Amino acid sequence: MLEARLTVDAPAALAWNLLTDTQAWPRWGTSVRAVRSPTRFIQYGCTGSVQTVLGLWVPFRITDWEPDRFWGWSVAGVPATGHRVTPAGPATCDVVFSVPGWAAWYLPVCHAALRRIDRLARDTFSAAAGAR
């Protein structure tokens, strides 16, 4: 597996929330336009479909799950990205996307998504801190 990694300036729980909230996927997933899922927050075995930037709807299934730390999925029946969050401090975490070796071309897409997650997480964390 190949990895794209970024230290995010927000708590791990907040990054995990963004990674598992299907309503947030189009905000950070550069290859996802929309999501259909029976639940807003994914869990092991969850199925649904994502609309790609090309407009195609493809099915997904959550195939790997470690609560609050890792999830992986298959898209159109093909093993796809893994998503990992590791606390790095009280208000920072490492977010890692893993991709199969044959999908090395997808790493720049993952790096772009990580930058979006960092921005969304920082904005959310700052807003929450300001509301106190």
Brief sketch in words of this structure:
With 132 residues, this protein is of the alpha+beta class. Helix content is 28%, strand content 41%. The model has no long low-confidence stretch (mean pLDDT 94).
Can you walk me through this structure?
With 132 residues, this protein is of the alpha+beta class. It has one domain: Alpha-D-Glucose-1,6-Bisphosphate, Chain A, domain 4, CATH 3.30.530.20. The chain has helices at 12-20, 25-28, 107-130; strands at 2-8, 32-36, 47-52, 57-66, 70-75, 78-89, 92-99. A seven-stranded antiparallel beta sheet has the order 1-7-6-5-4-3-2. It is globular, with a radius of gyration of 14 Å. The model has no long low-confidence stretch (mean pLDDT 94).
List keywords for this structure.
41% strand; seven-stranded antiparallel beta sheet; globular; 132 residues; Alpha-D-Glucose-1,6-Bisphosphate, Chain A, domain 4; alpha+beta; 7 strands; 3 helices; single chain
Trace the largest sheet across and list its strands.
Answer: 1-7-6-5-4-3-2
Helix content: 25-40%
Remind me, CATH topology? Alpha-D-Glucose-1,6-Bisphosphate, Chain A, domain 4
- Strand % is 35-45%
Number of helices: 3
Structural class: alpha+beta
User: What form results from the Cα inertia axes?
Assistant: globular
